[in-house]
Amino acid sequence: MFKGSIVAIVTPFRNGAVDQEKLRELVEFQIAGGTDGIVPCGTTGEASTLDYEEHMDVIRIVVEQVNKRVPVIAGTGSNSTAEAIELTEKAKAVGADGALLVTPYYNKPTQEGLYRHYMAVADAVALPQILYNVPGRTGVNLLPETVARLAPHGNIVAIKEATGSLQQASEVIALCGDRLDVLSGDDFITFPMMACGAKGVISVLANIMPREVAELTDAFYAGDLARARELHLQTLKIGNAMFIESNPIPVKTALGLMGKCSDEVRLPLCPMGEGNKAKLAGIMKEYNLI
Asked: Which of 45, 159, 268, 277 is in the most buried spot, having the most CB atoms within 10 Å?
């Protein structure tokens, strides 16, 4: 259902508030670059520091600006199942095409708890839903066997697999087959994951290089594996640079250097250290981004 290059879009701020004008401009930058879908209010979108009204405003603005040109997959996950249901219902109401639901963080639920959480959301809201497994952020790993238990539900259509493990991603693909699509959650393994059967990527790098990430997935689907591999290797250095500090600090810094939006982040995140900023700028110059 969702495939190709899907950007986990940043939420631009100015003087502490959501910069709605820049958000709309970033949407246009993505669509012009060939992006296949947009995820507002994910990890990269700093959803954890948006209040409820801001969260829904960001989703609404992205839905309005996209205007059905590509799918909008709203981040609606929470460590409270009731809140995840409410956010997913609201996202559906404002026109989102799907929802991305991170595993409950901090609570550290068991696999049975994760299963019941996702089943509760899927039962409550008739909207295509993408599971989001990022144990480095949440402290809990959604295991392949649990994903396979969830896969038959009609509203659960995909998983964003961000363990960084090709083995785990491959196990999910092997267990779920055609019942569930797998999307890479890490730019550096998009190509090898697609070789294993993944359908694309929910990308951080696409925020600054939408055309290149889209070209990689397009080349793969066109059967041009040599070009897809070439782009994988070409973008490896800049992709790794997006994580020299906690995401989304580097990508927002990069967008700031490009003049796309402010590099402002919300506490407890803080501006990038000057040494890393100089390093990032140097890498961006190699890619003719600045």
From this structure: 159
Residue 240 falls inside a structural domain: no
CA 223/CA 63 separation, integer angstroms: 32
67, amino acid identity: N
160 is a catalytic site residue: yes
Structure-token pair, residue 35: 């992006």
Place of tokens 């190699």: 286
Query: What is the percentage of the chain residues whose pLDDT exceeds 70?
Result: 100
Whole-angstrom distance, CA of residue 159 vs CA of residue 141: 13
Write down how long the chain is.
290
Total domains, the chain? 1
Residue 61's SS3 state is: helix
Distance, CA of 16 to CA of 21 (rounded, Å): 14
Active site residue 221: no
Q: Catalytic one among 22, 90, 92, 160?
A: 160
Contacts with 171 (C-beta within 8 Å, 6 or more apart), sequence order:
144
CATH code where residue 104 lies: 3.20.20.70
Of the residues 3, 90, 92, 132, only one is catalytic, namely 132
pLDDT in tens, 156-182: 999 999 999 999 999 999 999 999 999
- β partners of residue 73: 98
In a domain, 272, yes or no: no
What's the confidence (pLDDT) of residue 1? Answer: 85
Element (H, E) at 132: strand 129-133
Neighbouring residues of 209: CB distance < 8 A, sequence distance ≥ 6: 33, 235, 238, 287, 289
